[in-house]
C-alpha cells in the first residue's frame, strides 16, 4: 500500500511536469510565430506608405508639419466633410482622400468677369485699382507671352500688351514699387524647360520695358521683393527646376533703373526651394511656405516633357530684420506651396489663399488647399478664416475696398478629389471682415 501511494504520487508529478513542458513549448511556438509575423510586416511592401511619408519629413529642427490623419475603422474621419469621401485602406486603417482639409468658416463668394485666357503658374501685381496679370501656361504645351489688366472699379479686363520675347513665361519672380514692376527670370517656354537669368522692368504708366542686369545664375520661381532700396532675389530652384537653392542676391534700384551693374551676395536663406510667398511688412523681409523639388524635364526628351519627381512641401516662415539674420516665425497651420502671388496685406495681417500641401501618402497625388489663412502681425498667430469655392493652386490674388479677389490657377477635380485638374481664368471675390 505504501509503495502504491508513492507510485501514484510519482505519476502525478510526471503528469504535471509533462503539462508544464507542453505549455512552455506552446508559448515558445506562439512567440516565434508573432516575432516572424512582425519581422515580415516590417520588411513587406505594406509599410511603403509610411516609409514614403517619413522620408519626406524635414529634420527635427524644422517647423512641424501636418501630414495626414489616420483613424481606426470604427471611428469617423473628422477631416472629410464631403458626403461621399473616398476612403483608402492601409495597414488596417482608413485614410480620407480629403485628409488635408482644415476646419474653416463658410465663405460667400461672388463670381466676377472671367479673364481673357486661363493661366497656370502666371504672375500678378496690383497697383491701386489695377491687377496686372502676366504670362503663365495655357496648357502644358502652350504658354502666354502677354499681360492682361483687370480693373477692380468696373470689373472689366482690358489693356492687353505683349511681353519682351526674351522674357520667361512662367515661374517668375516679381514685385512693384507702385509704378515700376521688376521681373526676375523664371522658365522660358512650355513643358518643363529650364530657368533663365534674364531680368526686366516694366513702366506701368508708359507700358515700356527695359533690361536689368541678369542674375549671376538662372533661377526658377525665386522669392522676390523690394526692401530698403534693393531688389532681393532668394531661393528658388536651379536651372534643372528641381534642385533647391539657398542663394540670396540684391541689386540697388530706383525708379525702374539699376544703381549698380552687378548683383550683391547676401545672407543665404535657411531653406531653399520655389513657390513661396515673399512679403515686406513693418520693414521686415518675410518668406512663407514653399517646397523642395519640382517636376523635371524627362532625360533626352526633345520637347522637355515634364517628368514627376519627389517634392517636399513645408510650412516654414522666415524673417530678415535689422540684425540681418534669418529668424523663424510660427509655421503655417499646414505645409503650403504654390502661393507666390496668392497673398494680400489686410489690416496688418497677411492673408494667403489656396496652394498645395503634402502629396497623398497612398495615391501619391498632389493635394490642393482650399483654406484662407491669416497671419496676424500683431500677435504672430495663424488662423483659418475661410474657405475657397474649390481648392486651387498658383492663384493670383488682389484686395480692394474690403474685397478679396482671386483669379486663374489650377483647381481640384471636385469636392471629393483634391488632385489638380482644370486650369482657370475665373475671377471670384468675397468680403473680408476681421
- The count of DSSP E runs of length 2 or more, i.e. the number of strands, is 36
Largest sheet data: 5 strands, antiparallel
Write down the overall mean pLDDT: 83
Number of helices: 2
Secondary-structure-derived class: mainly beta
Q: Cα distance, first to last residue?
A: 99 Å
Determine Rg (CA atoms, Å).
28 Å
Helix content: 10-25%
Shape: globular
Low-confidence stretches: 1-18, 30-95
- Kindly estimate the percentage of residues that lie in beta strands according to DSSP: 35-45%
Structure description:
There is one protein chain. With 434 residues, the protein is mainly beta. It has 2 helices and 36 strands. The strands form 11 sheets. Strands 3, 33, 34, 35 and 36 form a 5-stranded antiparallel sheet that branches. The longest helix has 42 residues. The N terminus is likely disordered.
Amino acid at each position: 500500500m505504501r509503495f502504491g501511494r508513492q507510485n501514484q504520487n510519482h505519476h502525478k508529478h510526471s503528469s504535471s511536469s509533462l503539462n508544464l513542458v507542453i505549455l512552455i513549448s506552446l508559448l515558445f511556438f506562439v512567440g516565434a510565430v508573432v516575432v516572424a509575423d512582425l519581422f515580415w510586416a516590417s520588411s513587406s511592401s505594406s509599410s511603403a506608405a509610411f516609409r514614403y511619408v517619413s522620408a519626406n519629413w524635414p529634420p527635427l529642427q524644422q517647423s512641424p508639419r501636418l501630414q495626414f490623419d489616420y483613424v481606426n475603422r470604427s471611428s469617423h474621419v473628422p477631416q472629410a466633410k464631403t458626403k461621399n469621401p473616398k476612403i483608402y485602406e492601409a495597414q488596417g486603417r482608413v485614410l480620407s482622400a480629403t485628409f488635408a482639409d482644415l476646419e474653416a468658416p463658410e465663405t460667400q463668394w461672388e463670381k466676377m468677369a472671367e479673364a481673357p485666357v486661363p493661366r497656370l503658374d502666371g504672375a500678378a501685381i496690383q497697383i491701386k485699382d489695377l491687377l496686372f496679370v502676366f504670362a503663365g501656361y495655357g496648357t502644358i504645351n502652350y504658354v502666354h507671352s502677354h499681360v492682361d489688366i483687370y480693373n477692380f472699379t468696373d470689373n472689366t479686363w482690358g489693356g492687353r500688351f505683349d511681353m519682351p520675347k526674351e522674357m520667361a513665361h512662367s515661374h517668375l519672380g516679381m514685385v512693384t514699387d507702385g509704378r515700376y514692376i521688376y521681373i526676375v527670370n523664371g522658365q522660358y517656354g512650355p513643358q518643363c524647360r529650364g530657368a533663365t537669368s534674364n531680368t526686366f522692368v516694366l513702366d506701368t504708366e508708359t507700358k515700356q520695358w527695359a533690361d536689368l542686369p541678369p542674375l549671376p545664375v538662372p533661377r526658377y520661381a525665386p522669392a522676390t521683393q523690394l526692401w530698403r532700396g534693393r531688389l532681393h532675389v532668394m531661393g528658388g530652384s536651379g536651372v534643372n527646376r528641381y534642385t533647391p537653392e539657398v542663394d540670396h542676391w540684391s541689386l540697388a534700384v530706383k525708379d525702374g533703373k539699376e544703381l549698380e551693374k552687378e548683383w550683391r551676395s547676401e545672407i543665404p536663406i535657411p531653406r531653399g526651394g520655389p513657390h513661396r510667398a515673399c512679403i515686406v511688412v513693418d520693414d521686415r523681409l518675410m518668406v512663407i511656405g514653399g517646397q523642395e523639388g519640382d517636376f523635371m524635364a524627362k532625360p533626352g526628351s526633345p520637347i522637355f516633357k515634364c517628368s514627376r519627381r519627389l517634392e517636399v512641401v513645408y510650412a516654414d516662415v522666415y524673417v530678415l530684420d535689422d540684425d540681418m539674420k534669418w529668424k523663424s516665425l510660427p509655421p503655417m497651420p499646414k505645409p503650403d506651396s504654390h502661393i507666390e502671388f496668392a497673398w494680400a496685406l489686410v489690416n496688418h495681417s497677411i492673408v494667403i489663399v489656396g496652394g498645395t500641401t503634402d502629396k497623398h501618402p497612398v495615391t501619391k497625388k498632389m493635394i490642393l488647399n482650399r483654406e484662407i489663412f491669416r497671419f496676424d502681425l500683431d500677435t504672430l498667430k495663424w488662423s483659418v478664416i475661410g474657405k475657397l469655392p474649390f481648392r486651387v493652386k498658383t492663384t493670383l490674388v488682389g484686395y480692394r475696398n474690403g474685397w478679396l479677389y482671386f483669379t486663374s490657377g489650377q483647381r481640384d477635380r471636385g469636392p471629393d478629389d483634391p488632385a489638380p485638374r482644370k486650369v482657370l481664368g475665373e475671377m471670384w471675390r468675397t468680403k473680408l471682415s476681421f
